[in-house]
C-alpha cells in the first residue's frame, strides 16, 4: 500500500492511497492541477484513482471537488449534506453514502469513522486492502472513545496534531475561534495526538502528524511535543505546502 499526503492543513487536504493499481483520494482540498503535479512528482497519476472520498464539508476538504468531478472525471463519494457548499457540484453523478456505510473499490476498502468534529457528519477513515490497514484521522473534535481501538487495529496512521495550546492562546486568533479549535468539536492538540500514540499506538509501523495549524503550531513544536510524550520514535510530519511521501506498507 502506497501512501502520499498531497497536502495537509487548513489551506487544503488530500491523501492518495494506492494498493496494487487501485487508488482513492481522500478529500479534495487542493486544486486539480496541484493533485496532478504532486502525484507526478512521485511517479503516480490519476489513472489508478477509482474515487475521491470526502470527509466533511469544510472547504479545506471539499473545496475543489466540483473540478475533480468535471475536469479530472473522478467519481465523487460524499455524504449528502456537503452539497450546499459546492455550488459547481453535479449532484446527479455523485455517489452519496451514509456515515456508517463501507465503500469498496475492488480490493480497497474505505471504512468511515464518525467523529465529533463540528461539521456533522464529519468522517475519518480506515483504508485497507487484504494485508494492511491505514487510518486517516484528522478533524477529530477531541480524543473520542473509538480512537484507541482504531489505532490499535491499523498498521500506520495519519493523525491530526493541530495546535499547541500556548501558541493558540498567545496567538492572534479571536477568542471565539480559539475556543472553537480547542473545544470538543475542533481539533486535536499536539499533546492529545501524542498521548494517543503513546497509549494505543505502540505497534504502529509509522505515524504521520497531520493538519498542523500554520498559526498555532509549527512542525518543530509538534515534533518536540511528540518526542517528549511518546519518548521515542520518529514521526513524519505532513507538510502544508507540498506532498509528504510515507513508507509503503508491504
Ligand atoms: Zn474541518
Ligand atoms: Zn480541516
In short:
This protein is α/β, with parallel strands linked by helices and 250 residues long.
Which fold name is given in CATH as the topology? Metallo-beta-lactamase, Chain A
In angstroms, what separates the terminal alpha carbons? 7 Å
The CATH architecture would be 4-Layer Sandwich
Largest sheet: spatial strand order: 6-5-4-3-2-1-14
Helical fraction equals: 25-40%
Q: How many strand segments?
A: 14
Can you write the helix and strand succession as a string? EEEHEHHEEEEEEHEHHHEHEE
Beta strand %:
25-35%
Cα-atom radius of gyration: 17 Å
Shape: globular
- Poorly predicted runs are none
* Overall pLDDT metric: 97
Please describe what this structure looks like:
This protein is an alpha/beta fold and 250 residues long. Helix content is 26%, strand content 26%. It has eight helices and 14 strands. It has helices spanning 32-41, 59-62, 65-70, 147-153, 165-170, 175-182, 190-200, 219-230, and strands spanning 2-7, 14-19, 22-26, 49-53, 76-78, 95-96, 103-105, 108-115, 122-128, 133-137, 156-160, 206-210, 236-237, 244-246. The strands form two sheets. The chain has a seven-stranded mixed beta sheet. Strand 2 and strand 3 (22-26) form a beta hairpin. Helix 4 packs across helix 7 (190-200) and helix 7 runs parallel beside helix 8 (219-230). The protein binds zinc ion (2 copies). One zinc ion binds at residues 13, 58, 60-61, 139, 211. One zinc ion is lined by residues 56, 58, 117, 119, 139.
Amino acid at each position: 500500500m502506497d501512501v502520499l499526503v498531497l497536502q495537509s492543513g487548513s489551506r487544503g487536504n488530500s491523501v492518495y492511497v494506492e494498493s496494487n493499481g487501485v487508488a482513492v483520494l481522500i478529500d479534495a482540498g487542493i486544486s486539480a492541477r496541484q493533485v496532478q503535479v504532486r502525484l507526478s512528482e512521485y511517479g503516480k497519476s490519476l489513472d489508478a484513482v477509482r474515487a475521491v472520498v470526502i470527509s466533511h464539508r469544510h472547504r479545506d476538504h471539499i473545496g475543489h471537488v466540483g473540478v475533480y468531478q468535471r475536469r479530472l472525471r473522478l467519481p465523487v463519494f460524499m455524504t449528502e449534506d456537503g452539497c450546499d457548499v459546492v455550488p459547481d457540484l453535479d449532484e446527479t453523478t455523485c455517489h452519496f453514502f451514509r456515515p456508517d456505510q463501507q465503500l469498496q473499490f475492488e480490493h480497497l476498502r474505505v471504512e468511515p469513522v464518525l467523529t465529533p468534529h463540528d461539521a456533522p457528519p464529519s468522517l475519518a477513515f480506515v483504508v485497507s486492502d487484504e494485508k494492511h490497514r491505514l487510518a486517516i484521522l484528522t478533524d477529530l473534535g477531541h480524543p473520542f472513545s473509538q480512537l484507541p481501538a482504531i489505532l490499535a487495529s491499523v498498521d500506520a496512521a495519519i493523525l491530526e496534531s493541530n495546535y499547541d495550546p500556548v501558541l493558540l492562546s498567545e496567538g492572534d486568533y479571536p477568542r471565539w475561534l480559539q475556543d472553537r479549535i480547542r473545544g470538543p468539536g475542533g481539533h486535536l492538540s499536539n499533546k492529545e495526538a501524542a498521548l494517543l500514540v503513546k497509549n494505543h499506538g505502540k505497534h504502529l509501523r509509522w505515524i504521520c502528524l497531520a493538519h498542523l495549524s500554520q498559526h498555532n503550531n509549527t512542525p518543530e513544536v509538534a515534533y518536540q511535543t511528540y518526542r517528549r510524550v511518546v519518548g521515542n520514535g520518529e514521526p513524519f510530519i505532513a507538510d502544508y505546502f507540498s506532498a509528504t511521501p510515507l513508507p509503503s506498507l508491504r
